[in-house]
Amino acid sequence: MSEHSQDVPRRPPPPGLARWLLSLLLPRGNREFMLGDLDEEFAARVEQPEGLRGARQWYWRQVRSALMQSRPPRHVERDGRIPRRATMLDTLRQDALYALRSLRKQPGFTAVVVLTLALGIGANTAIFSLLDAVVLRSMPVERPEELALLYVQHESGLDPSFNYPLFEDYRDKNQVFDGLVAFNPVGVHLTLGSESERLLGAQVSWNFFRVLGAQPVVGRGFLPEEDFIGSPAQVIVISYGLWESRFEGKADAVGREVLLNGAKFTIVGVAPPRFTGIRRGLTTEIYMPITTPLDSLANPGRWAERLRMRTFTWAQIFGRLKPGITHAQAQAGMRTLAEQIKREQPMNTYNDLVVQEGRLGYADYVESLTKPLQLLQLIVGLVLLIACANVANLLLTRALARRREVAVRMALGAGGWRLMRQFLTESLLLAGAGGLTGLLVARWLADLLRSLQPGLQVQAGLDGRVLGVTLAVTLLVGLLFGLAPAWQLAHTGVVEALKEARARGGRGRLRQGLVVAQLGLSLVVLVAAGLTMKSLRGLLDIDTGFDAERVMLFGIDLSRSGFNRERGQQFYAELLRKVRGTAGVEAAGLGVVLPLDGGGMRITAVPEGRVHDEKKPINLTFNIVTPDYFRAMGVPLLRGRDFGEQDRAGAPQTVIVNEALVREYWSGQDGLGKVIHLMWDRAQPMEVVGVVADSKYRLVTEPFIPTMYLPFAQHYESRVTLMARSSQPQALAGPIRGLVRSMDRTVPLIGVRTLAEQRMRSLSIPRMAATLLSMLGGLGLLLGTLGLYGVMAYLVTQRTREIGIRMALGAERRNILRLVLGQALRLVVLGLALGMLGALAAARLIEGLLYGVQPQDLATLALVMLLLAAAALAACLLPARRAVRVDPITALRYE
Amino acid sequence: MKRTTNSSGSQVTLGEFEQLVLLALVRLRDNAYGVTIRAEIERRAGREVSIAAVYTTLDRLEKKGLLRSWAGEPTAQRGGRSKRYFRLESAGADALAASYRSFKGMVAGLERQLEKL
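Predict the joint structure of the above. Result:
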């Protein structure tokens, strides 16, 4: 790929799936010419008024017409010869038709089987589509296995951030990368016409698209001359999704001017479809050269300064390895280079570089999802096995009823192999129907999952890859449950079968085994469900220290609207005054850190009584808040006072701390009047004026952390969250939105929700796991119980004669009951015992998902056992009652 | 429909669609390939035809010796695929001419009446 190719305007390709279908459907001889023709015409149509959408519709019409044309000709050639002999395909068709007929005769049976399979396959497809999108699938770029991400190994873990001069050093001096890219995720504010929205953007070095091999489909990527410190270029590349949704997919989007954070930028290209950037789980909508200042209006010249700073650590670095270089070799090479650089330039350079595989992109955002998804995949796999066992049981029952039919066919000359194929066709047909219905289930489930995980933007559609897996699973399932009955049927002796059409059929060992397996698997699934539910209960009961039900949150970001510090302070002061005057508002305050958001701020500080130690600095968590923040959040002030007018800029520095901080550093004292030093230049000592009760900071699951609160008036930040307290917080959303708009139309409100919702969001993964697992557990329980019922009913029928004889010989009802239930009990106990072993084995896997619950939690295990045992008992009651009511005379005559 | 003879001496009949395709070749001269042929028929005869139908017909006509084809250079615009160009052979021209003559003969004197239909 030459740099020159960046200049050539590129066009969007035809839809990939459609093209693939065409390449299958078009006659081989002319395929290449035809595909070329269609490509050419597609490109021409994109330029027409209907644009990309019209061109796509047209392209799909070509698929349809190719489909019509490709139907095999069934006519007889002119000389009267039939073109082909009866082939395997014909037999297959015959088998399929026969199977269809016999399935249609038993709609109830067919429906139950298809539904069971649909639930099993659908759940698997849904989870797999998510797992694939989040964890497995490489980014849609060229040779993703050659990509590598650069990290620094710190004591606390891997850090992806570097300073920009260091990036330049690596870029210019390394021997192992074909191209090295700097990248920085940023939030941007896009204004198009009168509409404004907040989007995820990325500042990238010019070679971003070139190195990834994800060339823009319309327009071009960035040019080297647009990427140097001080570059005046104001150009962006937009995502394919944004191009379609905001520019109707028209080629003239390239060249248009848009407002980004209030400054003019020109669109020069559109990223390829399906390419969502280098951060997994998130979609980057806007790319710009890394040297372009984003907030040029507010801070002219400051960006160039930052790019030259070795103290400012922010840029992420990735690249494409030279051909033949492994990741390990690259790491060794980079470490050697890093040592050289460190000798010349000791400040903020690192020796401990780590080169990691980059085919997935940066996965930090989805990291917490990986394990839960893997676990869920395992569990849905188990549920599918239960479903298979169930269907196998149903088919075995059905096969028994069809012995006579089989016998007749065999007597008429059907071979064993031919019969087996017939039955396999039938089960594959059932599996196919189950798979198709399963896709509907999968779509529904996938939507449900996404709604539980609102921030996640993965393309977890049912694409070719997922459909392929579903197809494979379906076939496997069809074989799995079809083989047993097919085998059994095909190997029935003719004479035996004809003579004993109503067969004895042994004790159905296979079926009993299946039921034991079902019960065991159900137990594993139920235990997982029970544990996650108990864990979620615990999480919901955790005291956060806030009055979450009565607080409404409004994220406000002035940095995007060109406010400087002074104007920002004024804006916020006025906003607070107006909000407090709004009807229904009991208290209102601002906080810079939104609690339970997973993020936060820490700073090196020295509490009174401690000495600063370079090697082991004390890093204190802090927030910056206005007066009344605590009252708004429902956090009690225990001692001292809240911030007030006196804590303004220029006045002596003050701080409020929480109980945990007092306990940690001034145990046994009240903390008031103590002093904390911040370790940054020109920082004055801060005096503790108040102590508040503990509340959660980053995560619900964390313990209470020692936290400082600094007054907003002394420490301005442009991005804050407004907390407003009311008995009906939801009702504040409209009025406060209007209020902000009336003060400044360009100021965006982000994440308007109640604190209770914020809390629920922070628990999205446990909620997802608990919801899904309990659904799956219920399904497993239902299937297991049905399976047990089926087998018991069958066994009772099988033993009718025996029971009749026993009764005739004087056995009492309770003896019979014991006989039947005893048999059931053996199955249940065996199943539960095996299941318990399975659950204990699986405990390690689920451990990471649990909070405050041991994976071997006895209460849960006991409860699940009880539940299963009760369900099993219920399943046995009906057959047992039938057994007890057997009339000896009828039973004997029947034989 | 009119019958004529092709190079191997047997009689060749042109169907209506075959006539359209051959007429497109006459019009397009050196620039006759899938896209242009289809566009020509669409524009002049006012009907959208499937690409497979066009190629099937072209293949059949080539087999009968009425036209010949060759592959051009691959181009980037076509995803690196080459065009297949077509040109009328003399047998094709004869067949087309025969068709045209018979059609003209049947139409002669009816023009005004047909316009009104």
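Residues 42 and 48 of chain B are 5 Å apart (CA to CA).
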